[in-house]
Amino acid sequence: MKRQDYITWDQYFMGIAMLSAQRSKDNHTQVGACIVDEHNKILSVGYNGMPIGCEDDDMPWEREGDALDTKYVYVCHAELNAILNYNGGALRGARLYVTLFPCNECAKAIIQKGIKEVIYISDKYANSVATIASKKMFDMAGVSYRQYEPEGKELVLGV
C-alpha cells in the first residue's frame, strides 16, 4: 500500500516558491515564484532581487525617500525573474505559484508569456491600483487566479 500523507502538487510548488523567497535580500518583503508546466514539471523559479550585475550591497533597499534612493525602481519582482530565468521554449499554458499577488507590471509579462493560471498566498495589496489593474488584465486575457488553500500537512521550511 502506498503512503497516504504525501503533499499535493499545490503544496509542493508553493513550497518551492516559499523556499525561493528566502533567497531575497529585501529586508521588508520576500517574494518567491515557481513556474510549472501542464505535466507538473518545474520550468523556472525566481525571487525579488536586484538585476544580475547590480550588487545587493551597493543598491538601496529602503521603501521611502527619493525614488532613486528606494528599492522600487531597481528590484526585479519574483514573477519577472522566474520568467526571465526560463531558458526553454514557450510558457504557454503554464501555472505560476507566487507568494504575493502579482503587480500590474508582472501581470503584463505573465499574460504576454501565455501563463494561464496564477496561484498566490497573499493578496495584501488587493486594494492598490496595481493589483486592481492586474486582476482586470487577467480577467480580460483569460488568466485564472486563485488563492492558495493550505490543506493537510503544514509546510515548514527551516533547519
- Percent helix, as a range, is 25-40%
- Sheet with the most strands, sense and barrel status: 5 strands, mixed
Which stretches are poorly predicted, pLDDT < 50 over at least 5 residues? none
- Can you write the helix and strand succession as a string? HEEHEHEHE
Assign an overall shape.
globular
Strand content: 15-25%
Question: What integer value in Å does the Rg equal?
Answer: 16 Å
- Please tally the helical runs, counting DSSP H or I stretches of 4 or more residues: 4
Number of strands: 5
Category from helices, strands and their pairing: alpha/beta
Give the CA-CA distance, first to last residue.
31 Å
Order of strands, main sheet, comes to: 2-1-3-4-5
Mean pLDDT over the full residue set: 94
Brief characterization of the structure:
The chain is α/β, with parallel strands linked by helices and 159 residues long.
Written account of the structure:
The structure is a single chain. By secondary structure, the chain is of the alpha/beta class. It is built from four helices and five strands. Helix 3 runs parallel beside helix 4. The longest helix has 13 residues. The protein is globular. The two termini are 31 Å apart.
